Amino acid sequence: xxxxxxxxxxxxxxxxxxxxxxxxxxxxxxxxxxxxxxxxxxxxxxxxxxxxxxxxxxxxxxxxxxxxxxxxxxxxxxxxxxxxxxxxxxxxxxxxxxxxxxxxxxxxxxxxxxxxxxxxxxxxxxxxxxxxxxxxxxxxxxxxxxxxxxxxxxxxxxxxxxxxxxxxxxxxxxxxxxxxxxxxxxxxxxxxxxxxxxxxxxxxxxxxxxxxxxxxxxxxxxxxxxxxxxxxxxxxxxxxxxxxxxxxxxxxxxxxxxxxxxxxxxxxxxxxxxxxxxxxxxxxxxx
Length: 287
What we know:
This protein is mainly alpha-helical. It has one domain. The protein is 74% helix and 0% strand. The chain is built from 11 helices and no strands. It has helices spanning 21-37, 44-71, 78-107, 110-113, 120-152, 158-190, 196-208, 211-218, 223-228, 234-246, 259-286. Helix 2 packs antiparallel against helix 3, helix 3 packs antiparallel against helix 5 and helix 10 (234-246) packs across helix 11 (259-286). The radius of gyration is 23 Å and the shape is globular.
């Protein structure tokens, strides 16, 4: 029997085309993630929930714009709209965040992603950007519909339109803050398990089960505890940031003289979640 080896030509050829590099991979991963958040390119069943949530928030925006055009008063302003719809967005991210990251953990494709040239940081950036964009669109597009309703019914011409722009832009910025809070927390939780049901339950629990803590702290006899109660929940934390930035105490939460503490905690919470998410995927990439 001969010990000589035999080389078989099975038709593989070298790739001689352009190599697009990390930026193209990151962009493709972002585009895929954004499409996945709304079930695009997937079965009809995958589209039901995200588009159902989108339809509800759009309907609320249309009703709000119609009421304002008839009565001249809001049901919700741009800030209050984001606050009110945030409860729906909780369930949106609870379903979508596991689709973005838990599925990859369960299917074992991460070693393929983290083979060159994609890095763990690129993966995290793409996923965070995709979900943050989706959440912002979920709030920002209805806010734009509200803007159109106000701009087309103004009685002061371009002055009224510019006034409406001045109301819309801070409302959009507030929605960006909500988007990063939802995204950073939900993706961090979802990255800890490959089971989507566990990830979804954990996300809902973090957002909803911290609310009673705020209620308990807000009824304590200490005024300091009352003013700091909103720090115990992501939901009330962002409302506290709004109250601080707008200098108002009629928004359902009183921050007293601690408004800057709310701003610092919001920044630190988002930063900490993103850093932990990055550490999580650097650990996965090193396995």
